[in-house]
# Entry
Amino acid sequence: MFKIDKDKNEISALTKCSFSSLGFEERQHLQEWIAKKPECLGEELLIIQKEFSGFSDTNERLDLLALDKHGALVIIENKLDDTGKDVTWQALKYTSYCSSLTTSQIVKIFQEYLRNEQSAEDTISAFLEEDFDSITLNKGFSQRIFLIAANFRKEVTSTVLWLSNFKIQVKCFKVTPYSMGDDNLFLSVEQIIPTKDAEEYTIGLADKAQDEVASLTSTNATNALRHEFWAKVFEAARSKTRLFQNRSTTKDTWIEAPSGTTNISYFFSAIKSCCRAELYIQTKNREHNERIYDHLYNIKFEIEKSFGGELIWERETVKGTGCRVKAESKGNIYDKAQWPEMITFLVDAMIRMEAAFKEPLKQLKNKI
# Structure
């Protein structure tokens, strides 16, 4: 920091100091400066308590408690020349304690701070520019944390940056005292996390990270659901067909079992819109696939008669080169209420399909 000398048209450096070298203390000085001028933290804040210790079953005290212009609680923790290692954990504890405070409890806390000099309700109403009856304070998880110190340890900044990925609102302010002679002292207050220029971008990254976490959580839940569904299918099929006895459950929407004929498999498939029992033909050669399919299609009448109903025949599938014959029913694998009906259909259709294709598949080697 520099002093500008207009007459000489030059600048001169101020002396950077430590709080301890100047004889300043955390509670007696830094805390009081912020309490009297909270706008030094870059926004309008209403200090509602100092050295707050109104937590059940603990004697811990948070330095400053404030409200922002949205009625959210701001937990302010001050350190002088160094944050120490535990300030983040300390602030998170206090925030968790404060998260359950109701509007009436906050008013009571503020009134104790004001004593009888002012009305807490009127002061809050004036600060938020709303009628008090329409005000709700400390909504949901709106709490914010402000950490203030001359130097931040990497353990602290690393934790703060990680917490930001989960929309936990933590700001870090670097405070630095300067001197110019014995009587001229200055204080610099700089927001270092998130930096002012990058604040909106940082919030955007937090939203993205949170979306990715939510997506991962959703994916894990979906995978677990599919494993559970296939386990129930296997349980129902175990005593009725040997096709899937050596198969394991999966996170996929399908499960394959060999038919006994090379490159031809049976599949169970279940998605959001339907479930299927199917025979799938997939050699490396499309023309060969079609020859196998055509041979089976030529005896479609006999196969469907043995199956006991119509099947869906697909010479071309969405996958491209393969051919498929399937039995299909409506159903949603993600709705457990539909599982019993879906499982009954799948097992019954697969048993009948295996029986209907048993002899035709045996004859393929001689025909193709």
The two ends are 88 Å apart (CA to CA). The first helix runs from residue 26 to 36.
